[in-house]
Specification:
With 178 residues, this protein is of the alpha+beta class. The protein has a seven-stranded mixed sheet with strand order 1-2-7-6-5-3-4.
C-alpha cells in the first residue's frame, strides 16, 4: 500500500523511500548503519536511530543493553543524550530501524517504546511539539511516516510544568547556556 494508512490502524501512513525527503533518507541510511554498533548480548535485538536537528545535522544512537535490564538505554534515548552533549535540543525528526537476532531483513517496523516517546516529547515540547517519526524496515520497503503527537497522544511535558519564559532558557541549538 503506497501513501496509505499504516498497519497499526490510523497511526501514520505508509510511504515509499523515494517519497521521504533527502535528509530523511540520509537519516534512515545512518540508522541502518549504526545497527552494527548495538550492544545487545542479551536480546540480540538491534535498534538504530538518527535524530534530524533543525539545522540539518544528523545525530545517531543505538541501543545499549545491560545485565541489569532497567539500565538498558534505547537507541532513541542514546541519540538524544548524544545530541544534548553537543548542545542540540531542536529536532524536526527521528528515523528508526531495528532488526532481530537473526539479522534477516525485517518485514515490520519498530516504534519507540513509551520511555523514548516521553523523552522525544520532552524535546519537541520545548519548541512547537512537532517531530516527524520515520519508521522503516531494514530494506526500506516499508516506511511509516508519523509524528510524536500521533504516537504519543495527551503527552505530559515542559509546557505543563514550566512557564513559557522558563521553557525558553532550555531551548538550545548548539550553544551552551550562559
Amino acid at each position: 500500500m503506497e501513501d496509505g494508512k499504516g498497519p497499526h490502524g490510523s497511526v501514520g501512513r505508509i510511504i515509499k523511500y523515494d517519497r521521504v525527503t533527502s535528509l530523511q533518507q540520509q537519516a534512515l541510511e545512518q540508522a541502518l548503519t549504526v545497527l552494527d554498533n548495538a550492544y545487545n548480548p542479551y536480546s540480540g535485538f538491534s535498534v538504530g536511530a538518527t535524530l534530524i536537528s533543525a539545522d540539518g545535522r544528523l545525530i545517531t544512537g543505538t541501543n545499549f543493553e545491560n545485565a541489569a535490564y532497567g539500565s538498558t538505554i534505547c537507541a532513541e534515548r542514546a541519540a538524544v543524550l548524544q545530541a544534548n552533549s553537543m548542545g542540540v535540543r531542536h529536532f524536526t525528526g527521528i528515523a528508526i530501524i531495528a532488526r532481530g537476532k537473526s539479522r534477516k531483513a525485517t518485514t515490520k517496523v519498530t516504534a519507540p517504546c513509551g520511555s523514548c516517546r516521553q523523552v522525544l516529547w520532552e524535546l519537541a515540547d520545548l519548541w512547537d511539539g512537532t517531530l516527524d517519526v520515520i519508521l522503516s524496515t531494514t530494506e526500506k520497503d516499508m516506511i511509516i511516516l508519523t509524528s510524536i503527537r500521533e504516537i504519543f497522544p495527551l503527552p505530559f511535558g515542559p509546557s505543563q510544568m514550566l512557564e513559557k519564559n522558563d521553557i525558553l532558557q532550555y531551548r538550545k541549538t548548539n550553544q551552551p547556556l550562559i
